[in-house]
Amino acid sequence: MKKVFKSLSIFLLTILFCTGSGYKGSLPDINAQFETLRTTPQKTKPIFNTSGPYSNPQYKKAPRENPQYIDIILKRDKTSPYINDLNDVIALLEKMKKCIDNNGSVQKFNAIASSIIDHADFMAEKYANRPERYYISFVKLQNIAAEARTLATLRCESQVYLKYLTYQGEGQIYSPNSINAQIELFREQLDITIHILKDAT
User: Fold this and answer.
1) For 52-75, how does the pLDDT look when each residue is reduced to its tens digit (9 = 90+)?
2) pLDDT given for residue 142 in this prediction
3) How far apart are CA 138 and CA 129, in angstroms?
4) Which of 5, 76, 82, 193 could lock onto 144 through a cystine, CB 3.0 to 4.6 A?
């Protein structure tokens, strides 16, 4: 019975599809809706004119050999090498000032003093034949480097000679009071030098 029913349903479906029965109403008119697509050209005109004198502009090469271009357009760094050198030394002088304020050890003091002396010697050689050697900042730097050398030597000698000398006579220069007085004088000159160097930069 099931087989008969199944065969009958397949037969009826086949008749429905084969007889051509389907939608028998009228279709809507869609020509008006697609009219713009039919009349629009396949290629659109460009917005800008590509055939005029500005269609393929010729740009000039940058005049990198011109000093005005370098200075004005590229904004070359105006800082002189001398100012850069001074800034390096200012950092060392401030480090020395901090060392003195914190009662740093003789070894630390001498290490910073050595760096100051090296920078001063470097600048003395670099600017030996240039006008910068007449600047107040240059002269003060050379003076403070010489004072740093003298004080560093004095502090080293005091550690050696105080074992054998008293605080009177020849040993007086190595006494703690004398050393502290020298450090205080050096610190005053250090403040003045830092101020002058900062004004120069």
Assistant:
1) 555 555 666 656 566 665 555 555
2) 93
3) 13
4) 193
In the 8-state DSSP scheme, what is residue 173?
Answer: G
Amino acid at 160: V
| CA distance linking residue 201 with residue 80, whole number of Å | 9
- CB 138 within 8 Å of CB 100: no
- Residue 42 to residue 64: CA distance in whole angstroms: 48
Whole-angstrom Cα distance, residue 119 to residue 141?
A: 9
**Beta carbons of 58 and 176 less than 8 angstroms apart:** no
The alpha-carbon radius of gyration of the chain (Å, integer) is: 47
Positive or negative torsion for Cα 48, 52, 54, 56: positive
Furthest-apart CA pair in the chain: how many Å? 141
Query: What proportions of the chain, in percent to the nearest 5, are helix, strand and coil?
Result: 65, 0, 35
Contacts of residue 38, Cβ cutoff 8 Å, sequence gap at least 6: none
